[in-house]
Amino acid sequence: MKSAVVVFPGLNRDRDMVTALEKIGGTPPVVVWHKDAELPDVDLIVIPGGFSYGDYLRAGAIAARSPMMDTIRERAEKGVHVLGVCNGFQILTEAGLLPGVLMRNASLKFVCKEVKLSVANANTPFSKEYASGQVFRCPIAHHDGNYFADAETLKSIEDNGQVVFRYAEDTNPNGSINDIAGITNAKGNVLGMMPHPENLIEPAHGGEDGRGIFAGLLGPVNTYG
Amino acid sequence: MKARVIVTLKNGVLDPQGQAIEGSLVGQGFEGVQSVRQGKVFDLELEAADALAAETEIRRMCEKLLANTVIENFDIEIIG
Amino acid sequence: MKARVIVTLKNGVLDPQGQAIEGSLVGQGFEGVQSVRQGKVFDLELEAADALAAETEIRRMCEKLLANTVIENFDIEIIG
Amino acid sequence: MTIPNEPQITPQLVADHGLKPEEYQKILDLIGREPSFTELGIFSAMWNEHCSYKSSKKWLKTLPTKGPRVLQGPGENAGVVDIGDGQAVVFKMESHNHPSFIEPYQGAATGVGGILRDVFTMGARPIAAMNALRFGEPDHEKTKHLVSGVVAGVGGYGNSFGVPTVGGEVQFDARYNGNILVNAFAAGLADADKIFLSEAKGVGLPVVYLGAKTGRDGVGGATMASAEFGDDIEEKRPTVQVGDPFTEKRLLEACLELMATGAVIAIQDMGAAGLTCSAVEMGAKGDLGVELNLDAVPVREENMTAYEMMLSESQERMLMVLHPEKEAEARAVFEKWELDFATVGKTTDDLRFRVLWQGTEVANLPIKELGDEAPEYDRPWVAPTVPAPIAPDAVPQMDVADAVLGLLNSANHSSRRWVYEQYDTLIQGNSLQTPGGDAGVVRVEGHPQKALAFSSDVNPRYCEADPYEGGKQAVAECWRNLIATGAEPLAATDNLNFGNPERPEIMGQIVHAIKGIGEACTALEFPIVSGNVSLYNETNGRGILPTPTIAGVGLIPDHKHMARKGFATEGDAILLIGAPEGWGTHLGQSAYLRDLHGRREGTAPHVDLDAEKATGHFVLSLIREGTATAVHDLSDGGLGLGLAEMAIAGKIGATIDAADGNPVAAFFGEDQNRYLVTVRAEDAEKVIASAPVSAVRIGKTGGESLKLGAARAISVADLAAAYEGWFPAFMGATIN
Ligand SMILES: Nc1ncnc2c1ncn2[C@@H]1O[C@H](COP(=O)(O)OP(=O)(O)O)[C@@H](O)[C@H]1O
Ligand SMILES: [Mg+2]
C-alpha cells in the first residue's frame, strides 16, 4: 500500500509520522510539500501533527484553505483513505472534510501525557486491528483538542458510528464532548484523531499500542529499527 | 481603507476560554460577573474603491477564512 | 448589564497571528489587503449599579486579567 | 566624514546607555572623536555586561573547557562535543531572567527561541530542551502569575517549534521575589564535520539577512538585561519582544536546507543587540571589516532610525556570509519557506564597521576594538564568610514519616508534573525518559543503540552558604544525575546567575562559585563548553541567591542499559552506595531544616570529588553490566525523599532497616556522592563485596507501603497523593 505524508509549514510531527509509516509499512511514504504541483497516486494520505501556520487564527484554519486541501478533498471523495492526526484532525475539520470543531482545551493549557482510548467502532479501516470496546494507551500533545459539535451533528455522527475512539477511564484531557478522541466522515474513509499513535509504536516508546492504526491501513509488517 | 471585523461564537456553542476567564474573574473577587464570551477582532487595512466594495470584499474574507461559520458569527465595521 | 471589551496589541508590538492571516488572505487572492492585526473581544454580562460602576469594575478586570497591559491596550464599551 | 550627530551626546545620554564616564572616555580615546548617537548605541550594546562579560571574563577563563571529545568550547553560539560515529551534540544554556519578570509569557518564549537559534545556527537540529526556573516564595503576590506565564511561554514556543522538553528545575524562594530566573537549555545533533561557525572569511562577500523583519522590539533590551531593577520598572516595559515560533520553525528548516547546499561561509543568529553584535562578531572573528546598508534591511515598522535598526532585538533573524555564486540558490530556499532574504552588506578588508543609512554613514568604527577593547574589570571581591556548622543538638527532631510526607507535599520537593505536562515531551519519537526521572534521555536518531542524557542542577541554598562548595556541588549533582541513568557524563554548560558584581561580596560569590565549578569539572572530567552569565539580578539592593546553574550532557552507548529511578520489581535488595557511617549526617542548609522548620543554618555539604568519581564510576558499571534494576541519586531531601521518589515512580513499596544513629540525620542528611541502587536479592552480596566505596544493604523492595526504620509505614498511594498534590493545589485554575 502506498502512502503520502503531506507537510504544511509549521507542522512538526511529520518526521515522527514518516518514521512510523516506514517502520510499520516497510516502505517509506512519499513526503509531499503543500505547494508541490502534484499529489502522487497513493492509497493513504496522512496529515501529521504540529502547528501549521503557527495555529494562528484557529488551529488548522490557514492550512485548511490551501489548494492542497482541495486536492485532498477530491481524493477523499474518490475513496482514498485520509488520516489526520492532531493538527491533521484540526485541518480536516476546518476544511469541512470532518464535522465539528476542535476548540481550546477546557484547561486552556497545552497538555502532553498518556491517556486511554476505547474503540467505539472497530469496523473501520483505521480501527480494524482493535476489538470493539478495547481500551489501549496512547499519548496526546495538544492545545486545541476539545471536540465540539452541535446537538444535531453529534447525534448523527454517534448514530452513524462515526465516533471511532473515545477517551476512556476518566482520561478525557481536554473537555471533548462525549469523550470524543477520533471520528470519521460519513463514508468512513477519512479519520481524524487528536492522540498520537505514531509516538507509541515500539518498545523504546514504552509500548506498541499505537501500531494497530497503521497496521490496519498498511498491512502488518513488523520491522523495528 | 480601515475596517474592524468582530468574530464571536454563535449562541449555544461551547466557549472554553470564556468559561475559564469567567471562573477566574469570579475567583479573583469580581463577583458581579455573570457571563464571559470571548471572540476575536481583526483590524484590517486594505485598498478598495469605496466602503461598499471594502465591505463586500471583507465579507468574503470572513466567509473564506476569518470566521469558521459553523460556529462563529461576524460583524464588519468600515472605519474609513 | 452588558459590556464589550476590545483588547488590541500596542503599536509596534509584533503580531505573528496578524501576519500569518495577512499572508493567507493575500495568498487566497485578496490582494488589496495591506495589513491585519488581531485582537480579542470579550462580551461580558455583569451586575453593577450603573454604567459608571460597571466601567470601573471592568477596567480593573482588564488590568488584572483580560489584557496584558505590557503589550496590549483595551477599550471598554458599556452596551446597557 | 558625514556622521550626523543627532541627538547631542550628553553625560545623561551616556549614563542612560549604561556606560560609565570612564567607559565613555575609553570610547573617545579609541575613536578620537565624539561618537554619533548610533555609534553610542553600538558601543552600549557591545560593551554591556551581557555581551562583553566585562565583570566575569577574568574568572571564566579559569574554567576547564577542553577534553578529548570537545570539538568546540566557549566562544561560539554553542559548545560542540563528539559522540562518536561522526556525530556531535551541540548545546548551550542561556538566561532570559529580566524579560520574563516583565512579561512572563513572551520573556520565557523568546528565551527558548534564542537558545534554539544558538543551536541550529551551528548546523544542528535541536533534539532536546530543558528549562531551569526559579520563582519567589509561593505566596508572594506575583508568583502564581509568573509561574503560569513562564511555563505557558516555554511550552508555547518549544511545543510549536517541535523540540521535546526533557527536563529542568523549578524552585521557589523569597530571594527571587523581585528577580525570577528563567534559564533555557537546548541541545542539537549535527555531523561532526558539518559544524557552522560565525567567523567570516573572504573579502567582498555578501552579508545576507534572513528570517523575520526588524521592528522596534526590545530596543535597549540588552542594556536592560544588565541593569538592576529599580522602582521605575514600569517604564521599561515597551521594550518587550514577542516570539514567533512559527517563523523560527521555518527558519530552522530553511537554515538546515541552506547549509546542505554548501552556500554558507559563516552564520550568526541575531540575539541580544541583534544586527550590531552579529555583524561585529562575524567580522572581528574573521579579521575583516563589515559594511552594512540599512536601507536594505527588511523592516516591519515605518520610519525606523539607524539607531533602532542596529539595536533592535526582533526575534527569529540570522545573518550569514554566503558564497556569492550560490546566492540565487540560497534565495530560493528562503522563498520556499516564505522568509525574508536580503543582501544587507559586504565584508571588507579595512577592519572597519561601517553602517550606511539613507545615504549617510552613521557609524564608522574599528571592528576589532569594538569587541576586544571592551572594558574588562577585575572587580574587587571579598571572600564569602561561611556560616558555622549546625550543632547536632540544635537540629529540631521530627517524626520521620511526617517529615517525608511534609517534604513530598512542599513547594520545592513536590512533583513538577503540573509544569512538564504543559510541555511536549514526546515529539520526535525518541524520548526514552521524559521529565520526572534523574535525567531526560533521548535516542540518537540514525543510530540503533545510542542515547543522550540531559540534566540541569544547582542548589542555591548551598551556594549562598558557601559559593565554593555550592559550585562544586552543582557540577557534582548534575554529573550524578547523568550517571544515574547509565550515561557517561560528557560535558556541561553553565548559566551563572548572580546579583550586582559591583558589590565586593557578590563578586566574591562569583569568584568562589567559579572556582568550585572549575575544580569539580576538572576532577570529574566534565568540561564546560558553553555558558552564559546573568548579573545584576537585584531589586532595590537585595540580590538573588547565587545560582550557577549547571546543565550537563551524557552519552549512553546502548540504551538497553539505561537505568530508571522507579523500583522495578518486588524483593530487590536496596543498596545505599557512597554513604558515610550512619547513612547520612549533614543537615546544614538541608531541605529538612528549611522546608519543614523554616531554618537556614549551617554549612553547605562538602563534596569529596575523588569519592564522587569513584562512586559514580562504580554505579555506572552496575548499570552497564545489567546488575542495577533501579538507580536514583540522592540530593536535597536525602535518603528519605529519595526512597519515597523511587517508590512513587515504581508503584512498589519498600521496607528499610532502622539506621544506626539519629534517624533524622540518616534519612534527611544531605551528604554528597550517594546513590540508591536496587539489585536482585541474590546479587546483593557480590555487589557489596565488589564495591570500591561504601555500599550497604538498607532494605528491600516490595509491598504497598514504604516503611522507614521505626517510623510508621506510609502507603505508596499516600506518598503519591502528597507528592502530586502540592503543585495543582497551589496553581488552582489559573489562566495566564
Ligand atoms: N521546568 C521543568 N521542566 C521540565 N522538567 C522539569 C522541570 N522542573 C523539574 N523537572 C523534572 O522534574 C524532576 C525532578 O526535578 P528535580 O527535583 O530538580 O530533580 P533532581 O533532584 O533529580 O535534580 C526531574 O526529572 C526534572 O527534570
Ligand atoms: Mg536526581
Describe this structure in words.
The complex is a heterotetramer, with 1 copy of chain A (225 residues), 2 copies of chain B (80 residues) and 1 copy of chain D (736 residues). With 225 residues, chain A is of the alpha/beta class. Chain A has a single domain, classed as 3-Layer(aba) Sandwich (Rossmann fold), CATH 3.40.50. In chain A, 23% of the residues lie in helices and 25% in strands. Chain A is built from 6 helices and 11 strands. In chain A, the strands form 2 sheets. A 9-stranded mixed beta sheet of chain A has the order 2-1-3-4-11-10-9-6-7, sandwiched between helices. Chain A has a two-stranded antiparallel sheet with strand order 5-8. In chain A, helix 1 packs across helix 6. Chain A is globular and about 45 Å long. The two termini of chain A are 20 Å apart. Chain B has one domain: Mth169, Chain: A (2-Layer Sandwich). Chain B is elongated and about 50 Å long. The N and C termini of chain B lie close together (5 Å). Chain D is of the alpha+beta class and 736 residues long. Among the domains of chain D are: 219 residues, Phosphoribosyl-aminoimidazole Synthetase, Chain A, domain 2 (Alpha-Beta Complex), CATH 3.90.650.10; 174 residues, PurM-like C-terminal domain (Phosphoribosyl-aminoimidazole Synthetase, Chain A, domain 2), CATH 3.90.650. In chain D, the strands form 5 sheets. A 7-stranded mixed beta sheet of chain D has the order 8-10-7-11-9-12-13. A 7-stranded mixed beta sheet of chain D has the order 23-25-22-26-24-27-28, with helices on both faces. In chain D, strands 1-2-3-6-4-5 form a 6-stranded mixed beta sheet. Chains in contact: A-B, A-C, A-D, B-C, B-D, C-D. At the B-D interface, helix 1 of B face loops of D. Strand 2 of chain B pairs antiparallel with strand 2 of chain C, so a sheet runs across the interface. The site of adenosine-5'-diphosphate has 17 residues of chain D, from strand 4, strand 5 and helix 16.
Give a nutshell description of this structure.
The complex is a heterotetramer, with one copy of chain A (225 residues), two copies of chain B (80 residues) and one copy of chain D (736 residues). Chain A is α/β, with parallel strands linked by helices and 225 residues long.
